[in-house]
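User: What would this chain look like folded?
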Amino acid sequence: MFKSVLAAAALIAAATPALAQDAPKTFNGPYVGVQAGWQQDRQTLNAGTTSTSNNTSGFAYGAQIGYDFRLGDAAVLGVEVDITGTTGSTSFTGFDINAGRTISSTLRAGYLLDPQGLLYVRGGYRNARFTIDNTTGNDVSSNRDGWTIGAGYERYITPNISGRLEYNYTGLGNDALPSTNVSRSVDYQRHAITAGVNYRF
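Assistant: Here's the prediction, encoded as structure tokens.
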């Protein structure tokens, strides 16, 4: 009996490394997902020597596709492309600014707090569309190129599904506006907090 127990223990010990090697690595490979959350657009109107800032908050929603590269036991590098939309508009005297779709291409770097949980930072390129609705009816659409940076936490819910919570700040430069007397421009900034779910292949 004692010899049988020792033999079984030896078999389990020999099989354990092989099973560990066969277990799939987390945060390694392609994924697709959806996201939604809160977004605040802040526009500042500069007219001559005066400035006026307005904030508008809205519901943000979209989808993403990406790929993670597991480096060693704890490091993860990833790439992601996403497209999002939002609700809400910002009002100034004489015109409104409506936010449209946003397209992003970002890199992220993360550290595994445990095999199922990833703490990460993200940064990259963002392009956002805005429409300026004038009271005169001469609406103007503009695609703003900018940059984004943020941080988040992602965790596996099942072997193929992960959930995440993320904050991002975006700077989108400024637009020069037509004017008959003083120079005018609008600066664009954005804050967003979103939750997402990814399906991992």
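The helical segments are 2-22. If you want, I can go into more detail on any region.
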